[in-house]
Description:
Number of domains: 2
Number of helices: 11
Strand order of the largest sheet: 4-5-10-6-7
Strand content: 15-25%
CATH class of the largest domain: Alpha Beta
Number of strands: 14
Structural class: alpha+beta
CATH topology of the largest domain: Uridine Diphospho-n-acetylenolpyruvylglucosamine Reductase, domain 3
Amino acid sequence: MQTLEIRQPKTVAEAARLAAADSEARLLAGGQTLLPALRLGLAVPGVFIDLSALEELRGIRADDKQLVVGAMCRHAEVASSAEVRNRLPALARLAGGIGDRQVRNLGTLGGSIANSDPAADYPAAVLGLGATVQTNSRTIAADSFFTGLFSTALRPGELITAVSFPCADQAGYAKFPQPASHFALVGVFVARFGKQVRVAVTGASAHAVRVPALEHSLAQRFVPEACDGVTVGSEGLNSDLHGSGAYRAHLIPRLARAAVQQAVG
């Protein structure tokens, strides 16, 4: 039977040093992805670096232009935060719809986006809002962060410390959830900043992506009807027992419409 070692750093700098020193070590945040993978034999780390005691990775700060959410903030904290509800209600609603109550009480923002699950909710918000991912060594723009299936721009030993979300003029998120897991079969996050519109989709591809055709149409008129008639191609979209690529392509503009309706009230 494999022996597991748990290391509990007291600072982010110490955690980064431990991660850089052992390429086989795995960072442990909420554990809602890593621990199930361990049980299934899909992950076999010998060392866990437990981030749960790092207070510098917690907290939500706000000003007129952005929300800065610590990487170790639980989904339930984001969903219930008065700051998030006031400045980015779409982000609070998204967080409140992740998984079930246990997942929301244990899962973290940083863990979710570092994992880059193709059906996770948070990547749509990060990309849709044009957020900035802060790490222990640099900042990474959302458009450069998600690089592939379970793959990001993070370097070995690099830790997410916080995510800065710009406060949109209007934003909304709608998803078609897989009934058992509540992961997004398709989820669409829409955000308007003045005349600029960003539309990000999760669940449809190997990682969260933007949809230029919807962005262009909504930039002309930010109303639900602007999504009608926009065609999204199915080439390269996920196809599995839950839905074909064509089905996911069909859902994208319809969920975008629902997200815009939510945004405009």
